[in-house]
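2024-03-11 09:14:02 DEBUG pipeline.ingest accepted 1 chain
2024-03-11 09:14:02 DEBUG pipeline.ingest length=122
2024-03-11 09:14:03 DEBUG pipeline.predict start
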Amino acid sequence: MKFKPKCGVAILLLVPILVLGLTGCGSQAVEFNSGSSGESAAVQKIGTNGQLISIQSDNVRAAGYDEASMVMTVQFDNGALYEYYGVPAELWTSFVNAQPHPWSQVGYPRLVQGGIPYKRIG
């Protein structure tokens, strides 16, 4: 059975085998896996597996989030690249949803002023 998300990437669903839904169009992926009863349930995965995606913003060029390591990467328009550590998935979702002003509305107040550890990596 195939499902077609809004971003146009087909997801193949095999029951009762674990199936991974992938999306290349935004900040969230959906994973379908088989429960013990053989029925499929959707489990929402947050992030981009660390891959940078384009961000609509005046000063942020791109950003990415790895849910497993809780690392958020932000690339600014001037080329500076930063990693923020221990970022909750909810903060990443808020950041992406705050476009076109993700840095002023979420990034600076929650990452910098909130004391999230970070490092310039580029």
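2024-03-11 09:14:41 DEBUG pipeline.report The chain has two domains: 12-46, 53-120.
2024-03-11 09:14:41 DEBUG pipeline.predict end
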